[in-house]
Amino acid sequence: MAFSLCCPWLDKRVPSLQLRSIEEPAGGAGAGMPAPTCYDSECARTEAWLDENQEFVHDYFLRKATRQVVDAWLVSHATPPSAELASPSRAGSGSGATTPVRKISAHEFERGGLLKPLVTTVDGTPTFLGDQPPHATPSRPQRRSRHELRQLDEKELIFELVKDICNELEVRVLCHKILQNVSILLDADRGSLFLVQGDRASPNPQNGRCLVSKLFDVCSKSTPEQMEQLEEIRIPWGSGIVGYVAESGEPVNIPDAYKDERFNHDIDQQTGYKTRSLLCMPIKDINGEVIGVAQVINKQNDGPFTANDEKVFASYLQFCGIGLRNAQLYERSQLEVKRNQVLLDLARMVFEEQSTIEHMVLRILTHTQSLIRCQRVQVLLVHEASKGSFSRVFDLEAGDDTDPGTPRTSPYESRFPINIGITGYVATTGETVNIAEAYLDPRFDASVDEGTGFKHNTILCMAIKNSEGRIIGVIQLVNKFDELLFTKNDENFVEAFAIFCGMGIHNTHMYEKAITAMAKQSVTLDVLSYHASASLDDAQRLRTLRIPSSAHFSLHELEFDDIDLTDDDTLRACLRMFLDLDFVERFHIDYSVLCRWLLSVKKNYRNVTYHNWRHAFNVAQMMFAILTETQWWKIFGELECLALIIGCLCHDLDHRGTNNSFQIKASSPLAQLYSTSTMEHHHFDQCLMILNSPGNQILLNLSSDDYEKVVKVLEDAILSTDLAVYFSKRKAFIELVSAGATGAGSADGAGGAGGAGGAAGAMSAWGACDERRGLLRAMLMTVCDLAAITKPWPVERRVAALVAGEFFRQGDLERQNLNLTPIDIMNRDKEDELPAMQVKFIDTICLPIYEAFAVLSPALQPMLDRVKSNRAHWIDLSDNDKNGDDKIEYNLDKELPEKNDKSSISSQNVDDTENTYEGDSSGAVSLSSETNSKYENLENPVVGLLCNNVLALRDPSKFCHLNDY
């Protein structure tokens, strides 16, 4: 102090307070810090004096150091990153079931002190309890020196010391300040402070109320860091001088400690310190409840503590009680935050991986053992059929995972005997059992310890429940470390953790069941795929057949009729289309695979009245005829043409003879899978299933990009056969066609009605824009699907009979199974109105689209002409029905001639408004829907080439040039 008074220049000469030892460079030996600055001789002498007077330096630093100086000191003395302990690598810990998770136990929450920031987990996993920034503390005025404080009068001194503690929220630092301030106030040599802990109503003496030495023997030179290293002293409630003061709430002033029978002489013998006078006083909160006891020892003048000392002591402790209660509340809130973070971290751990029950249980065992710190942990899974018995028992003992050379991914199973009395009781009742002495509990079976060398002392057993509240297991903890009892705090932790564990175990069970179900499904799909594929013998037979020309089958004719073709003829005709469009050569399609794929597609069409293989073949033939007659294959390119032909052949795969509306009304599994375009999505999925089945992979040699493009066009094409999709796109399509016909909207300005060149320019605009080309493909699918309405009248008349029969059967199912009245087109009682409804169908659905396509190409004008002709025939039939004359026979229960059974006729239906035509584009009615659920999981990417030459065998004279508008 003398140096401080005689050296006022010290504050000026050392403004940054870079105080360091002469022997040690800044940052510690070998820290790699810059060499100390060279001082003059006067500064060197000053630094030497400071090194020899550490007490002054410490006091000066506490009074004068700024926050920036402290931060700079911390930075300069920080441990370099290379010196930090690296956390164990997570490599090879795929299950995450390794060693205990964190260096923390639940017992630390009972000590009352704030936990230090938890830095990492033992297995290296991220945690909520990682490094946390220190809590910002409000800036406080610098504390006066002890000399300055002693110059103040009593009131000013108390006020100054109250200011010193009023903003301190850390309990240990606050207690240290209280004791040092009390020593200043009372001129005492040292002091101690005890805080009340425990539950007043606890039946367990070990968990009852007691006094714990927060700080013991604090003198003027003591630091909080030094005090923190001392072990806690626990004093029973009412025992000794401190216990008496806490119990009675009255102060005790003893002039001579050795003459008081309540004084414990052992402490003096252990420390070598001689206690003479002693003043002990309770610390009370605002409600008057004792929350601690403060004690000062040995007045500096060797005299006793006076009555005035008691008065001053009591006055100051009133403020200390308020500050201490606030600090404890703050500490509890921080502990609760930490507690929530621990539980959140445990929840993350539980739900991070749920692959197998063994991995899940091992995580539960290791984390529980680490958190509660006990010798053994058991998880017993309750047998589903009998709550009193257990299907599996997993054990973990402290030290099981200490050997790094024996990594495990599953816990030990059934190593230890089961206390069936306790665990069975918990599994049956769901109650928590906390036993302080196992051998005194009648439910404990002492025979489980015989011959094991292990003795059960304390037991905590708790039920594990799933999300439904059903008991699925029991967790049992045995023998808490340090001979401690399992506390209410332990119960709270285990109870909260058990909730997460219950959901984790339940989810793992569900996951394992799902894996088993998926495996069964995979096997089932494999079997179905095998049976859904055509046989190799059939494919080989088809491969040996001669393939006639397109002219032989009249495949280029728009009025094509398959009435005279056998099933083998339809397959050979499909092969001819692939050959003429040059798909086989351009995309390196194995001819045998193509034959088998066609047979598999045919095999996957059900034997329904209309939506069968023959309908698919007719749609594909119409697509082939339009592409070749208009030469639009040049607009789409070979990949899109391939997708369109495949889409036509597969667009009604596995059709059940009922439409989307029926699937939704019946709540079928298909409707649960696909909320919109139900049957169309199913057709697409079946198409992909066949394309990816072994022996049917005709796209095997396409590149990954080409395969993805084909599948995307294929999906759009099949979904476009839903009339809901058709209606959503038709308006935009017709507007584009009209704009091109009038010379507006052509991308290259070549539109108009000025001849073939103008038409070619207008069509090139469709090909140059992906969006327009996609719109044209979608409308083209509908044109082909409805193409039977464009066939000669005898074919169209056969169509009505077949389609009406399929519709009537759906109406019968709705009436019988769903107790619904079918719509008119499916109602047998309304069959006399079918001609009139067919006229409405043509007017609403067919005429607009065929008129638009006739504008795009004169080669398609005959289709429009036959639609109008058929419309006139339906009008005549409608008039005849009114007069009772001609009538179509719709009774399909009679056996039709063999060739008629093979024929395929397009179906149409009618209703009052455009918006009621919803469903597939064959005319089946369904609820209004928009397409969605795009196919994302593209598999089987393959390699191939792009085709740019087709129809090598086609007579060029039969090709139509692009038409004039």
Question: Which SSEs are present, and which pair or pack?
Answer:
Layout: H1 2-6, H2 10-13, H3 41-52, H4 54-64, H5 67-76, H6 146-150, H7 154-166, H8 171-186, E1 188-197, E2 210-219, H9 224-228, E3 234-236, H10 240-248, E4 252-254, H11 266-271, E5 278-284, E6 290-299, H12 307-352, H13 357-372, E7 374-382, E8 390-397, E9 412-413, H14 420-429, E10 433-435, E11 459-465, E12 471-480, H15 488-532, H16 536-544, H17 550-553, H18 567-580, H19 583-586, H20 591-603, H21 613-630, H22 633-650, H23 660-665, H24 669-673, H25 678-691, H26 704-719, H27 723-741, H28 756-768, H29 770-785, H30 793-817, H31 834-856, H32 861-883, H33 898-902
Antiparallel strand pairs: 1-2, 1-6, 2-3, 4-5, 5-6, 7-8, 7-12, 8-9, 10-11, 11-12
Organism: Arctia plantaginis
Binding site for Zn(2+) 1: 615, 651-652, 785
EC number: 3.1.4.-
